[in-house]
Amino acid sequence: MHETGIAMEVLRLARETAEREGARRIARLKLIVGRWSGVEPETLRFALEALREGEMLGSAAVEIEVREAEFQCGGCGTLFGASGYFDPCPRCGREGADLVAGDELLLEELDVEDE
Amino acid sequence: MSELRVEQKVLARNDALATANRCLFRQAGVRRTVNLISSPGTGKTTLLVATLGRLAGRIRVGVIEGDVQTENDAVQVAATGVPVEAVVTGGACHLDAAMVRRAFVALRERHPSPLDLLVIENVGNLVCPASYDLGEDDKVALVSVTEGEDKPVKYPALFHAASVVVVTKADLLPHLEFDLDLLVRNARSVNPRLRVFVVSARTGQGMDEWVRFLEKAGG
């Protein structure tokens, strides 16, 4: 639902980064979207493709890597992937593990052209 | 063609503004800031108005009221005599740190005396507000007993980000087949550290405990 605002922020960040590096055009931008970031990857892609414009961003390809959630048990420290927040630790059975990966929303890399 | 490693958080600008908001709130004397988040219709404004009545004369409160359209909620809050600033997002489904900053500055211009508690009522939505730090000490997720016990597992991002859950409309429990224990179990399966308050703004059930929590310093 808030993917449009996030897409505008991504494009602003990409443009500023590319301008700082003296680039003329962004050929590709790559994002990392955590499964639990609250952002729907395909909605974000749609928003980015609808909003990209101008010489700098108009032809930028959008690549999104979805990062799965990873949890760490607060009791025994075991790291495990899970389908939800509700899976107990597979080793000791304790509930309420901490999310250690999968809530990120990152602009990871840009392919840029100078000419 | 060259590749640039960026590795920047997309919401870094919002996070930086939220950190600045925390300083701004502390400078105004604010000891706790809460961000109320729920579906439309859970009773955020009703709970807020009842809460403000109980806090009157005890601590100084300021309110920032977010809505997609209309200032109806802000008008209800203003009737209690508490300083309030409305944020009409004009379609946006959440408040962000910049909106809250502007509203707080406007509130302070009209009411420059110190505040103890700042309450931010977010736009009615269980998804997007979870992603945006506003500078609050506590995200407070509200669920009413006329909603499902599975709300926390359907919307885990919010319940994971929240530190407090308030169950509202508790006076209706005798009339419903709502399993309160199951709701609390579901919420704690997402986030074992959640504090839970069960309240009715109408009868006053649970309100003393909730108000005591708000009176204490946060952060």
Present the secondary structure layout.
The complex is a heterodimer of chains A (115) and B (219).
Chain A: H1 3-20, E1 25-34, H2 41-51, H3 54-57, E2 61-67, E3 70-72, E4 79-81, E5 98-101, E6 105-113
Parallel strand pairs in A: 1-2
Antiparallel strand pairs in A: 1-6, 3-4, 3-5
Helix pairs in contact in A: 1-2
Chain B: E1 2-9, H1 12-27, E2 32-37, H2 44-55, E3 61-67, H3 72-78, E4 84-88, H4 97-110, E5 117-121, E6 138-144, H5 151-154, H6 156-161, E7 164-168, H7 180-190, E8 195-198, H8 207-215
Parallel strand pairs in B: 2-5, 2-6, 3-4, 3-5, 6-7, 7-8
Helix pairs in contact in B: 1-4
Strand order of the largest sheet of chain B: 4-3-5-2-6-7-8
Secondary-structure-derived class of chain B:
alpha/beta
- What strand order characterises the main sheet of chain A? 2-1-6
Give me the oligomer status: heterodimer
Instruction: Please identify the top-level CATH class of chain B.
Output: Alpha Beta
Question: Secondary-structure element order of chain B, as H and E?
Answer: EHEHEHEHEEHHEHEH
Taken from the alpha-carbon principal axes, the silhouette of chain A is elongated
Content of β-strand of chain A: 25-35%
Tell me which CATH architecture of the domain at 3-68 and 102-113 in chain A applies here.
Answer: 2-Layer Sandwich
Poorly predicted segments of chain B = none
Order of helices and strands of chain A: HEHHEEEEE
